[in-house]
Amino acid sequence: MNELFGSINKFFEFIVPIADFLWDFPTNYAWYANIPILGKFTFAILLLVGSGIYLTFKTGFVQCTRFSKGVRILMEKKASDTGVSPLAAFLLSSAMRVGPGNIMGVTGAISVGGPGAVFWMWVSAFFGMATAFAEAVLAQIFKEKEEDEFVGGLPFYGKKIYGDKRWVGVLLSWIFIIYALFSIPGQTFHMFTALGSVADTMAGTTFDRQSVVYYAIAIFLIISVAVTVFGGLRRVTAVTDLLVPLMAVIYTGIILILIIINFPLIPYFFKAVFAGAFTPEAIFGGAFGVALSQGIKRGLMSNEAGQGTITMAAAVADNDHPCEQGFVQSLGVFLDTIVICTMTAFMVVMAHVWTGEAGVAWETIRSAKLTVYLTSIQHLVPGTSMDAAVKMIVSLCYALFAFTTLIGLILFAEISGNFISRGKSFITGIRAAGALFFVPFGALTVLAGLELGNLWYISDFVNIMVVYANVPILILGSGIIMKTLDHYNRTNGARFVSQEIGIETEYWKAGTASKVK
C-alpha cells in the first residue's frame, strides 16, 4: 500500500514547481523581489487586493452602507418552495470559509510576519467584503432553477460574462470540481489531527496511526460524510445550519473567556498589532513588507473573497433581489476574518511565545503552526487543571471546521457540475467520487503514516487558476453589478426583473417569485 501511495505522490511531482511558480509570480524574479514593499506581493495577491479596492470605491463602500441591511436579512425567518433561505446559504458558505485555515493560517502569518500581520489581515478583509458582494450578486443574477433547488456560481456567470460561450462554463466547472475533490484529502488529514488530539488527551497517551482509535475515526468520517452528501443540498444545509453556529459559538466563547481571564494583556495585543504593522520586530524579519504581505495573503486565503469558491452557496439562496445575498455574503468575510481569525490572533499575540515566556524555544516550534497555537493557549489558561479541557474543546472545533469544509467542497463540486450535466448519474458520480473515493483515500494515507505533499499541491494549482479566471470576470461584469445595485437603491429592494437593467436571465423574469413561507 505504501508503495502505491508513494508512486501516486511521485507522479504528481511535476505539479509542485508549477503551482509554486504561479502563486509566487513574479516574486520569484530577483528584479521584482528587490523592489521595496511591492516586491513582497505576488500577482495573485495584487489582483485580489486591487479588485477589492476597485469594487469598494465603485460600489460606494457597499460593505459599510449595507452592513446593517445584511444583518437584518439574516435575521428574517424566510423559507420558500425553491432553494434555501439567505441564512442557510450564509451558513453554507461559512462552512467553507471557516476552516482549519482560521487557526493554522493565522498562526502561520503571525509566526512569519509578526503581530502586525493581523492589521493587514483586517485591511484585506475590509476590501474583500466588496469583492464577496460582487461575486455573490453575479451568482444570483445568473442562477438557474433545477426542480426545487437553484444552481449557479462561477461557471454560470463566467459563461455569460465571456460572451455566453458554453465551453467557458464547462472549463470553469471542471477546474472547480478538480480543485474541490483534490482539497478533500487535506481536510481529511485535519480531521484526523484534531480527533486524534482529542483521543490522546482523553487517554493520556499518544495513539499510533495504526491503532484501533484511528481506524474508528476513519470509519466514522467516511460514513458521516457519505450520509450527509448523498442527502443532497437540503441535508447538507441542515447539517451546516447546526454545526456552523455551534462551532462558531463554542470557539469564540472559549476564546472570549481566555481573553477576559487575561484582560491585562489586551492593551499589549493592540499595541503589538498596530506597532508591528509598520515597524515589525527583528525576530520576524524586521521588514514592513513581510508583515504587510503575510497579513493580506492570510486574510484573502481565509475568507476566499474573489476566488469564486463561495459563489455556489450564494446562488442557491432564494431572494427577492440579487443584492440581498450580496449583502449577506459580504458579512461572511466579516465573520471569517474580522471575528474568527481575530480570535485566533488574540491567542497567539497575547501569549507572545516568541519571547520565551511560554517556556519553549521559539525557533524549535515556529514552523509547527498547530504547536504554536496550542502552546499559546496553554500559556493563557490559568493553572494546569483546565489545560486538557480547553485543548479538547479547541481540537473539537478544529475538527468541526474541517468537517464542514469537507462536505462543503463536495456539495459545491456538485453544484458546479450541474453546468456540465444535470443527469442524476453524473451528479451522483461527483458525490461518490468525493465521499467514497477521496475521503477514504485521505483516510488511508493517514493510516499509512504518509503526508502526500505533491498530491495536495493540485488544489493549490487549480485554486490559482480559479483566481486568475474569476477576478477578470468580476471586473468585466462590474457594469452589471452596478446596474443591479442601482436598481436596488432606486426601488428600495423591490422584486428584481433582469430586463429592467437591460439583460436577459433564465430566472429573474417577471412572475418568477417563489412562494415565500
Estimated share of beta-strand residues: under 5%
Can you list the strand order of the major beta sheet? Answer: 1-2
Here the CATH topology equals Amino acid/polyamine transporter I
Which residue ranges are poorly predicted, with pLDDT under 50 across at least 5 consecutive positions? Answer: none
Helix content: over 70%
* Main β sheet profile: 2 strands, antiparallel
Shape: globular
Count of DSSP helices?
A: 23
Main location: membrane
Protein name: Alanine or glycine:cation symporter, AGCS family
Pfam families: Na_Ala_symp
GO molecular function, one term: amino acid:sodium symporter activity
Tell me the layout of helices and strands:
Blueprint: H1 2-11, H2 15-24, H3 30-33, H4 43-58, H5 62-65, H6 67-75, H7 86-97, H8 101-113, H9 116-141, E1 144-146, E2 149-151, H10 154-161, H11 166-203, H12 212-229, H13 232-261, H14 266-278, H15 288-303, H16 311-315, H17 322-351, H18 362-365, H19 369-380, H20 387-417, H21 424-447, H22 453-476, H23 478-491
Antiparallel strand pairs: 1-2
Helix pairs in contact: 2-22, 4-9, 4-22, 6-17, 7-13, 7-17, 7-20, 8-15, 8-17, 8-19, 9-14, 9-15, 9-17, 10-11, 10-22, 11-12, 11-20, 11-21, 11-22, 12-21, 13-17, 13-20, 17-19, 20-21
